[in-house]
Amino acid sequence: MSRNSRTVLGLVAVVLTMGALSWAAVPFYNWFCKVTGFAGTTQVSKEAPDQVLEEIVRVRFDANVDKDVPWTFRPMQKKMEVRIGEDSMAYYEAINNSDETITGTASYNVAPDVAGYYFSKIACFCFTEQTLKPGERVEMPINFYVDPDLLADGDASWVRDITLSYTFHRTEPKQAALDAQPASNVN
Known about the structure:
187 residues, alpha+beta, Ctag/Cox11 (Pfam 04442), five-stranded mixed beta sheet, 10 strands, 37% strand, flat
């Protein structure tokens, strides 16, 4: 094999390796954030823990929309005081202010970042796409708790105020959602 052929083969291998690493970076980063709570990524749980402590945490709620989403989106409560380990429920409201059906997905995080590992969602509107028809208003629940292990973590045990923040982004609806909508009659 000539020197030029080895060089080309080496460069192709480098390009393919870089492409594979780039492709794997996003899923790996998402997995890493979910496992560690990095960057305020919250956890997902099937149920609240059995242990409810007397210690109180204040949870503040924040809502934002991307500039291309003509919705009014707000928390229905500004803050809540919850006991650590307590199964809690909060609501957000969304109103589609446009004359078109819009589908959105909510991204989320908590602050301070260190609280992400201990803030667990049992059910949340952010787990699925939300499709609102023109003028439609919906109330969307989030069922959550703050894990009692928070108090045992030397880096997080000081946290008593957590801000949960959502931002809605426009998304293309999945085909199954489109199929479920009744067809309009056009004559």
